[in-house]
DNA sequence: ATTGAAAAGAGCAGCGA
DNA sequence: TCGCTGCTCTTTTCAAT
């Protein structure tokens, strides 16, 4: 399914450091990991090509952009068939208010994280873009008080005490 | 509350481009926006100081790290008081499986996005880290089929046809 | 695969307009 | 506020180990 990706401790440490600060230079990276800068570059490029690193995203403060209110909308799309949900997702993704769309199991089909200016804006969004649609059977709105990003994503530790290096799925 | 932040069309275009690829050089940025590279640097630094740009995040593929299964856990914490929820959030954030924690309105207090290896791993996580805790009154697990990040975050367009530049809250 | 050194390129400050 | 010039640091390449 995925390309062969083998991550040794050097790769893991680089990933961990870059997730803490994606702008760390190869020089600093090299110093902290204990290899040459050119080796770091090589590793990072390999992680890129291997699809482990998908890209670099700018973290922006929604409040400073006039979107101080965020919410999660649980949406039921009926009937839940490809010809309906495909366009639904694309339409939602195109909304300037949308941040993330989750397709999930359970009674509600989608969870949509949105960032809006204020309550009036949220009301407008829900009414105009969700409940007014025929394929949208139900919308439940939960406001987001606060949101925390968690620590760097790392491979799970092997529960059986196997070597710490993680080996991805192979597909030669 | 926030510093004075005024965003003109140049700032907005820079933000839009950087959200697509945060590693775009000032030179390329300048070429696409139509100003001098030094101006781009100046603008970006201002956006940094103004708190609009919070930092740079590395986007990583969880599946390539052996965390091919993601889920959203709705968690009810009872009693929902500061002395309980503070430590709860910190404990959850420290879990290597946790990606994002939302504090939300509604019957469930928290939404926790987790990335695990497989179903057995998810079961272990729910049982050991959530339902076994006394302050956790209820956990509802929804699996994530798929997840989409949406377009760049931009200021809302003014509904009254005012100038397109967005002016943040002032506090001189 | 990793390295050090050298070349190419980008970041950054100062200055003049 | 903008754009130019020049210096410094980073990134990237490459031959050798």
Write the layout of secondary structure elements.
2 copies of one chain form a homodimer.
Chain A: E1 6-7, H1 9-20, H2 26-33, H3 37-49, E2 53-60, E3 69-77, H4 82-94, E4 98-104, E5 110-116, H5 119-131, E6 136-149, E7 166-167
Chain B binds a DNA duplex (17 and 17 nucleotides) through helix 3.
* Outline type of chain A: elongated
Summarize the largest interface: chains and residue counts: A-B, 67 and 67 residues
Query: Quick one: how many beta strands of chain A?
Result: 7
Strand content of chain A: 25-35%
Question: What is the succession of H and E elements of chain A?
Answer: EHHHEEHEEHEE
What can you see in these coordinates?
The structure is a homodimer of 172-residue chains. Chain A has 2 domains: 9-49, Arc Repressor Mutant, subunit A; 62-144, Lrp/AsnC effector binding domain/regulation of amino acid metabolism (RAM) domain (Alpha-Beta Plaits, 2-Layer Sandwich), CATH 3.30.70.920. The model of chain A is unreliable at 161-165 (pLDDT under 50). In chain A, a hairpin with a 5-residue loop joins strand 4 (98-104) and strand 5 (110-116). The first copy, chain A, is of the alpha+beta class and 172 residues long. Chain A is elongated, with a radius of gyration of 21 Å. The first copy, chain A, starts with 5 loop residues before the first strand and ends in a 5-residue tail after the last strand. A 4-stranded antiparallel beta sheet of chain A has the order 4-5-3-6. Chain A has helices at 9-20, 26-33, 37-49, 82-94, 119-131; strands at 6-7, 53-60, 69-77, 98-104, 110-116, 136-149, 166-167. At the A-B interface, helix 1, strand 2, helix 4, strand 4 and strand 5 of A face helix 1, strand 2, helix 4, strand 4 and strand 5 of B. Chain B binds a DNA duplex (17 and 17 nucleotides) through helix 3. Chains A, B: This is Lrp/AsnC family transcriptional regulator. Chains A, B: GO terms for molecular function: sequence-specific DNA binding.
